[in-house]
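Notebook entry, structure prediction.
Reason for the run: the old model in the group folder had no record of what sequence produced it. Starting over properly, with the input documented here first.
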Amino acid sequence: MKFLSSLRPGIVGLGLGLVLAACSRQAVPPEPIRAVKLLQVQAHAAHASRSFAAEVRAQTEARLGFRVAGKLLQRPAQLGQAVTAGQLLAQLDAQDYALGAQAAQAQVQAAQTQRDLAQADWQRFSALQAQGFISPVELDRRRAQLEAAQAQLQQAKAQATVQGNQNHYTQLRSDAAGVVTGVHAEPGQVVAAGAPVLTVALDGPRDAVFAVPEGFQAQLTVGQTVQVQPWGDGAPLAGQVREVAASADPVTRTFLVKVALPPAAGGQALALGSTVQVVVPGGTSMAATAPSAAPAEVLTLPSSAVWQQAQGGAAVWVFDAPTSTVRAQTVQLGGCRAMPWWCALACR
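New structure, fully documented this time:
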């Protein structure tokens, strides 16, 4: 009991010290100085433009198919293969067409025999009529038979030519040099006449093909010069608008545009299927405003400098050097450039 009583004042004193320590107010640490990035900008003339991702294609792409129907036996041409003019691309089973050609040749031989017999009869009856043994009517009858036999021979020859062409059509050959860009049938498949088997992009001029939204196609005219920028370190090219679709795509509601690319230096043209960027001057902003509504001068700022106000509208922080303070400045967003992290801002 004496030991507990002797410890009681110490325990009470310790508890009181804890209470007093809890009630005392701690000193607030100083607010750290935050570093900000300052960017000095100035207004410049607004050059409205739109950029589109385009695909390089050949100006002439042929979807090749057989003129006759049949079973596909072989297809030597492969996807991406370079082909030359006259090269065999695919082969149909030509057995039936070969038999048809042989039958047509037999018809020609039979018609030839009939014509020769009719000609011999006409020659004999001509001699008899000159001697007065037969009447002129009988000679005319023999002449009619000779003319009919001659017509049948011509018909048989024409039919034999058609059958020979049908047999020749079982071989699909390239009309010009190019690259196989599409395969639509495989060996063993029965294809109909005219059905596409291969797509060949012919060598020669190339286009940059892209789609524009509805309403923008009116700002493009055939012959207009646009800038074509290859991806990477390639130098920009000056292309010309060659074709603007007259009607919109029924699914995407966009208009197809084809820009003719200039011949590359040294004959090294852009690879088929590669992606390029087409910059069209005089385009509208991403907000779809009219070109006349664009401001005369704009400020180019990083998109990270823009923030949304609580009452609506975009704003940026403007630094005041004399007071070392910042103030909010309302801005009107314009169109974005090709680089996604830069935007054009027009200050009110």
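Summary: The first helix runs from residue 2 to 23.
The old model has been moved to the deprecated folder.
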